[in-house]
Amino acid sequence: MTSPIKIDSQIQGGAPCFAGTRVPVVSLFDLLEQGYSIDEFLLDFPTVKRQQVVDVLDLARRDVPRYAEARAG
Fold first, then answer.
1. What's the burial of 16, exposed, middle or buried (CB within 10 Å: 0-12/13-18/19+)?
2. CATH number for the domain that contains residue 50
3. DSSP states of 41-58 as a string?
4. Residue 23, Cβ neighbours under 10 Å: how many?
5. Number of domains in the chain
6. Cβ distance 14 to 22 under 8 Å?
7. pLDDT for 1-53, tens place per residue?
8. For the stretch 47-69, what's the b/e string if a residue is b when 16 or more beta carbons lie within 10 angstroms of its beta carbon?
9. What is the domain range of residue 42?
10. pTM for this structure?
């Protein structure tokens, strides 16, 4: 699987963005935290594909336990 996230110092100052876009990944989490749905996010950021959102959320889901283990140790 190709990474849904791209980090490029020339795009958004190196912030992690959805691959092929200039949309920072943090925008997704900020809007979800505010109660927006994925559909609303996709309407606001039409360059991001639904599968990219699903892939980013899956990455976050898989990495949270690893992060928590590292912090507990």
1. middle
2. 1.10.10.10
3. HHHH-TTS-HHHHHHHHH
4. 21
5. 1
6. no
7. 688 999 999 999 999 999 999 999 999 999 999 999 999 999 999 999 999 99
8. ebbeebbebbeeeeeeeeeeeee
9. 5-72
10. 0.82
